[in-house]
Amino acid sequence: MPELPEVQAHVERLSRPVSDGGFAGATLSGFRPITFTALKTATPAPSDAVGRRLDRITRRGKFLLLRFPPLTDGADDGDGHRDDAITFVVHLMQGGRLVPDDKQAAKPRNGIARWTFDDGTALLLTEAGNERKAGVWVIVGDPLRQPPLDELGIDADVVTGEQLAIALGATGTRLHTFLRDQHGIAGIGRMLANEVCHRAKLSPFASTNKLSAEQVERLHGALRSCIADALSFERGLDRMSKSAERPGSVHHRKGQPCSVCGDAVRAVEYNAYEVDYCPTCQTGGKVLADNTTSKFLK
Ligand SMILES: [Zn+2]
Fold first, then answer.
1. How far is the centre of ligand 1, averaged over its atoms, from the C-alpha of 240 (Å)?
2. How far is the C-alpha of 51 from the C-alpha of 29, rounded, in Å?
3. I need a labelling partner for 54 at 20 to 30 A (CA). Which of 37, 206, 214, 296 fits?
4. What is the 32 CA–ligand 1 centroid distance (Å)?
């Protein structure tokens, strides 16, 4: 699944001017949902944005935001989001991609939705696999104050140590669960959750409200540096990476030696997903059992 760094680097690619292969400044000529589940909102009609220019592509959590302000100047609410701007909010979920669509085939492979622009270019939302969960919300007004973005926590790349401590203390859950849940902090998925816990030398099953100040500080540092590393890797590519290409220390490396200590990386099934960790670095040598109620999950 694309996480904050992958989405951020992709937003930067798409934000280049049209003359440089990007989409900034392109005028919308049409939007077409290709699957029944593509469009998540009933109003406004996507066609309300036709004729408007795509003035800004941004990111919030793992979502991409394509903003089309009205042609005439409206009142600015201070956040740079005019009240009557229309924003397409896109979530890629597990296997989604938002890509330039040169062919514009009538039935594009894995196609979910398509934006066309009056210069003949197009953007296609695709989703590999059968989940069909990727989608588009069309929002008028400030998108940050409306679903699906209004309940997101602070973005993981900008959260301060103090804000992180408050978010951790407000919930009594497992650290790995907290990192992946988008309400405490936003933008982290399975891979970064594994990598951040490893770099912070914390058990993925540590209780969030029992972490010491020193542990929270380590977690904050690991969060910032893991995101920075992933972003730097991703910015070196001309398209969004596949999961298997992304460099990591523990994620999907079960049985391989830990890059820090040489111990074998272990995996444990938890709530239907795999958590990867190094016992020596993270759990005091304890190998965790495949059971969510296990007394070893500490
Ligand atoms: Zn290790």
1. 29
2. 6
3. 37
4. 49
